[in-house]
Amino acid sequence: MPYHDGSPYETATSPAAPEQDVSGIVSAVLEIFIFLSNILPLLVVVKIKKRSERTITDYFIAALSINDMLAVLSTMPVSLPSYFHREWLGGKPTCVFYQFCLFWFQLSAMLLVTAMSFDRLLALWRPMQYRNGRRTLRASRTIIITYITTMILSALPLTGLAPPVMVGPDSRLCQSWLLTRSKRNHEAVYPLTLLTIIWTVMFAVLLCNGFLLKHLVQYKKRLKHPNLQTYIDKKSFKDFTRLVIVVAVLFYLTWLPVLVVGTLIQSGQKVGELISVYALASTTLNALLNPFMYFALSRQFRNGYIQIFSWVIQSLRPRNTCTGCPFRSNGYRTTNMLTDGRYRLKYKIPSIEFVEQIVTVL
Fold first, then answer.
1. pTM higher than 0.85, yes or no?
2. Within a 10 A sphere around the Cβ of 263, how many other Cβ atoms?
3. CB 116, CB 155: distance < 8 Å
4. How far apart are CA 149 and CA 354, in angstroms?
């Protein structure tokens, strides 16, 4: 998460309080906001959408939201106390745990976004076979394989194939495995392997998105199959495809500074510590922006968000607040301001159609 990797610049030049406390408070607020905002797309997939309406993309979005929430829950308790001190707290064990969780969930997010892109490409190339397939099974297998693969990859530094996260028993710095220069040959195995994999996957996803854009422009027919009772219209299909393209491009744009800085460091070039800090911070922007991208680019998620907020407002609204509302009990007719059309609600909730018009105008 933002500003967590304890680079030498960040720790050695950390400002004194109250600026230091402000930095910790801002980081805590951002992480809490990331956690809460990612609850919305998860609720849309799990609660708002029916099981028959869910697509493989929906399952990947739900998994990505859970992944970003777990990244906050696993790293925040370890790293947040260090914000209010001028050193990393907990020593090497907490630093190794933090680096492992950070790389595990970040790499999992990368592969989930990659899977979303190739899934959309398959949906365009083989629409009938894609629709007839077992969506839940395919999505579950992909998600499980993703987490197992990234867990193994993130655990490789524990075998000594990466630079040490803390130099010396009295070290107060928690250094990143990816942005620390290797002093021995075997310590360069993990960062070089990781950089190679990420660069390769990024170019593959960009190429996939290029094909998606090309086929999306030419996609004009409605998908229909005689054995199916549901249809995929052009607008809904295009919305999801555009959403996947934007999320994938946004993810790799936020990772591009780290890839460039990491490549320069591992090739022996000198990079300023401030640049490294901001490069690491940029990797968390995708977790912050993804829920807003779902709202802006997908009508289904936009409607789901509106239903969730409407339910929250209704649950917080006091009951029977109107004056003069007739009510009777013991078998007589009961009238409630929320159910009787003759009485106006004290606070009106905008309809979904009205909010969609506002969003379209904006």
1. no
2. 18
3. no
4. 45
